[in-house]
Write a structure and sequence with these properties.
The chain is α+β, with helices and mostly antiparallel strands and 642 residues long. The chain folds into 3 domains: 200 residues, 2-Layer Sandwich (Heat Shock Protein 90); 160 residues, Ribosomal Protein S5, domain 2 (2-Layer Sandwich); 168 residues, Rossmann fold (3-Layer(aba) Sandwich), CATH 3.40.50. Helix content is 36%, strand content 20%. The two termini are 51 Å apart.
């Protein structure tokens, strides 16, 4: 073993003393990520969702009509509901208060078939106890219809027995908690993040009143979310920045035994992308599952049967599911007793019977709807027919592109300066605007792992175009060829040649526009690139700061420049970079490309619906929503030319 090798030798004997048994909630505090995903902002907000989900389960049981969520000073959250209230009696198995059982024992709850809940988002019975374990303190107040009971915990341990603090004729539960700063990186809750999630839940539970109140500042902010239209109102909101192809949202529903399905759907006249959101027992299934498979199968079947019956297509022809989905916004919500999710994250529904139920309901009800509404049906079929012709045009354009590439002698674009390493996990590609910046990047790169693709010519706004136009765009085809994974429904992550795709544009208005155009393209036609964390934005510096001949620092924003001024005074030589081409290769490597020193932003997809709306607003045809968006968000812009 050389002196640089890691010393992994065991320094202690391995006996019974090395085996740890984590008792009670200690396991949660030791490994919080196993229960809430992470200790970052997403995990922090997950605490609120767990408590709210318990209240929503009361709504699903038909015993809760109002949920109030309040953000209080000092990072405290309060969730109140008017459900039945957590049972306060002594638990028959443990001999302690049921509240203590619920909040201090993992896998303890009323959702394992005991009859307390018909359907529920809770799967493992860890929600309430996990929140308790990860809180500096938590207080539960239960209104039993006769008495008001209270119990307090600190870092998962009870501070005393259940106590009676008053009398009441109301029922319900109030939970107050403060996230533990020893666990979380940040303990400040974001109002808009909670608003998005709670609004979603209000849509999914038509008639349920959810109130979100922010009491942390001088001015109280309140949102009251109640939608009697349920998921139809949800689709209307999702489509509000688009032009509907048909006025009414199509609503389909059905049930069998203890399971039921609701579908709301509406096509947009001016959209080529689809947006399908699915839920099971109010849990968003971001990875889809059997209910989504059933919907897609039924939609394709109904569309093709109708088209052949009325001779819109020939008997031997067939629309693809991709054709039938173009421009469609749909919300699928299923509720069932024994939901089978993939893990505690609950992102994919595995119940095969839900595929059959959704397929049958959509096939029957959508078929009836189209027969009874021939004008709407014909408008939908016309759009799908146009989509089918565009798909065929895209196929021909794709084949032409492949033939041309083959004739050129290679399947890679001519202007690509590739890297030598062939392991995608080690490789990254910088997509750079212009030959000047491309030349600097080429000269400054590490050619073993870094590839450079300079772009030139007019960038296509894919928000206003179908896939066939992509293959005709001189700026996008090189991107498709360089990445090697295909585009649209053919995108294959396994063929991706680089696991870091980095957009490197100037830090000005034109650069921002290029970044937005490229991100729109990746979102619409290579979404897994974003979903799986392969897309990044380079962050070139805005300033080079010197004093006389002495170099001081690069600054990436005005805040950093102000800090430099506060230390070194105002008499500084400040070079403002207008573009990447102004940097020589050494400067570009040092500031923007060197993995040891660079700053990059990973592009993530937290909420597909929100991203869809943002791209539609910024890159779509309608001017008014764009103006409103800019006016509303201008106050958050610190540097207009960044």
């Amino acid at each position: 073993m050389d002196e640089n090798s890691l010393d992994l030798k065991v320094t202690q004997s391995y006996d019974e003393s090395q085996i740890q048994v984590l008792e009670g909630l200690e396991a949660v505090r030791k490994r919080p990520g196993m229960y809430i995903g992470s200790t970052s902002a997403s995990g922090l907000h997950h605490l609120v969702y767990e408590i709210v989900d318990n209240a929503i389960d009361e709504s699903l049981a038909g015993v809760c009509t109002h949920i109030e969520v309040s953000l209080l000073p000092d990072d405290v959250v309060e969730v109140c509901d008017n459900g039945r209230g957590i049972p306060t009696e002594v638990h028959h198995q443990t001999g302690t208060s049921t509240i203590e059982v619920v909040y201090t024992m993992l896998h303890a709850g009323g959702k394992f078939g005991g009859g307390g809940y018909k359907v529920s988002g809770g799967l493992h019975g860890v929600g309430a106890s996990v929140v308790n374990a990860l809180s500096e303190w938590l207080e539960v107040i239960v209104y039993t219809g006769k008495e008001i009971k209270r119990m307090r915990f600190e870092r998962g341990d009870k501070c005393g027995d259940l106590e009676t603090i008053g009398i009441t004729d109301q029922t319900g539960t109030t939970v107050r908690f403060k996230p533990d700063p020893e666990i979380f990186d940040e303990t400040v809750f974001d109002f808009s993040t909670l608003e998005t999630r709670l609004r979603e839940q209000a849509f999914l539970n038509g008639g349920l009143n959810i109130t979100l109140t922010d009491k942390r500042g001088e001015k109280v902010i309140e949102r009251v979310m109640k939608y009697d239209g349920g998921i139809c109102s949800f689709v209307e909101r999702l489509n509000r920045t688009k032009t509907p192809l048909h006025t009414d949202v199509i609503y389909l529903s059905g049930e069998k035994a203890d399971s039921c399905v609701e579908v709301a759907m509406q096509y947009a006249e001016d959209s080529y992308a689809d947006l399908i959101l699915s839920f099971a027992n109010n849990i968003k299934t971001t990875e889809g599952g059997m209910h989504e498979v059933g919907f897609r199968t039924a939609l394709s079947r109904v569309i093709n049967n109708y088209a052949k019956k009325y001779k819109i297509i020939k008997p031997e022809e067939r629309f693809t599911t991709e054709d039938a989905l173009e421009g469609l916004c749909a919300v699928i919500s299923v509720k069932l007793m024994e939901a089978q999710f993939e893990g505690q994250t609950k992102t994919k529904l595995g119940n095969a019977e839900m595929r059959t139920l959704v397929t049958n309901v959509v096939s029957e009800k959508l078929g009836y709807y189209m027969e009874e509404n021939p004008q709407v049906a014909r408008a939908i079929l016309d759009k799908i027919l146009t989509a089918s012709r565009a798909r065929e045009a895209a196929r021909k354009a794709r084949e032409a592109t492949r033939r041309k590439s083959a004739l050129d002698g290679a399947s890679l674009p001519g202007k690509l300066w590739d890297c030598r390493d062939r392991d995608p996990a080690n490789c990254e590609i910088f997509i750079v605007e212009g030959d000047s910046a491309g030349g600097s990047a080429k000269g400054g790169r590490d050619s073993s792992t870094q590839a450079i693709l300079p772009l030139w010519g007019k960038m296509l706004n894919v928000e206003k175009a179908r896939l066939d136009k992509v293959y005709g765009n001189e700026k996008l085809v090189p991107v498709v060829l360089a990445l090697g994974a295909g585009v649209g429904s053919e995108f294959d992550e396994e063929k991706l040649r680089y696991h870091k795709v980095i957009i490197m544009a100037d830090a000005d208005v034109d650069g921002s526009h290029i970044r937005c155009l490229l991100m729109t393209f990746f979102f619409r036609f290579m979404r897994p690139l974003i979903e799986h964390g392969y897309l990044y934005l380079a962050q070139p510096p805005l300033y080079k700061v010197s004093k006389g001949k002495k170099f001081i620092s690069y600054c990436y924003n005005d805040g950093e420049l102000d800090e430099i001024r506060s230390v070194h005074g105002e008499e500084l030589d400040i070079q403002r970079y207008k573009g990447l081409g102004e940097m020589n290769p050494e400067q570009l490597w040092e500031t923007t490309m060197n993995p040891e020193t660079r700053v990059m932003l990973r592009v993530t997809l937290e909420d597909a619906a929100a991203a869809d709306e943002t791209f539609t607003i910024l890159m779509g045809e309608k001017v008014e929503p764009r103006r409103e968006f800019i006016e509303e968000n201008a106050k958050y812009v610190k540097n207009l030319d960044i």
